[in-house]
Write a structure and sequence with these properties.
Layout (H helix, E strand, L loop, with lengths): L1 H11 L7 H12 L18 E15 L4 E16 L6 E12 L8 E10 L11 E8 L2 E3 L2 E13 L5 E9 L3 H5 L3 E12 L1
Helix pairs in contact: 1-2
């Protein structure tokens, strides 16, 4: 049964960035213990696996330099396309702003936060709480081959997909030594993938 679940997760994966997204989705399914579903009569109907692809843009004001200082950070995530789930989510995004004390040598520290994803379901009119998902998330970053890769994990605590786990992977270009020693890193954009299961 676990093999069937893993195969279904692989079939539902969105082919972004080659095989890597499929491997991440498959690893997430194994890591978080996705099992075969119970019969419909034994559990309430819940949306299934959702996968989204898009970009994340981060701006830093003032720029991040080697020495730690207060930095206002703005994060804008846009998912151009989503597939799976209950079929209603077409695309989505998230926006966050906060200030922290950081420098180029502290960009890899772990974090805990609450993130709200908003979803476009194709319905017009005012947004409803079911058109968003609020999740308690945590993550830490690793520098590898010129990128800072941040896997974010968490659980949806409110709204659409409540009770489901999530994995978001965000690889961003790593700041150069020249940026850190001069005016600083003021912004960066990279691809991101989100899997809710």
């Amino acid at each position: 049964m676990l093999l069937n679940t893993l195969l279904n997760a692989k079939k539902a994966s969105v082919a972004v960035g080659g095989q890597r997204l499929r491997v991440v989705a498959l690893a997430a399914a194994v890591l978080f213990g996705v099992t075969a579903p119970a019969p419909a009569s034994a559990q309430p109907r819940r949306p299934g696996l959702l996968q989204c692809e898009g970009t994340e843009s981060v701006s830093y004001q003032p720029g991040v330099i080697l020495k730690a200082r207060p930095i206002h950070i703005t994060i804008d995530g846009r998912f151009a396309s989503c597939a799976g789930g209950d079929g209603a989510v077409k695309n989505g995004g998230y926006h966050e702003e906060f200030t922290l004390i950081t420098g180029c040598n502290k960009l890899l520290e772990g974090f805990r936060s609450r993130r709200t994803y908003t979803w476009n379901t194709g319905h017009s009119g005012p947004r409803h709480t079911s058109d968003s998902s609020t999740a308690d998330i945590s993550g830490s970053s690793t520098a590898a081959v010129g990128q800072v890769v941040t896997p974010v994990t968490g659980t949806v605590t409110r709204g659409r997909f409540q009770g489901h786990s999530l994995l978001q992977v965000i690889p961003l270009p790593q700041p150069s030594a020249l940026q850190c020693l001069t005016d600083g890193l003021t912004g960066v954009t990279g691809v991101t993938t989100l899997t809710i299961f």
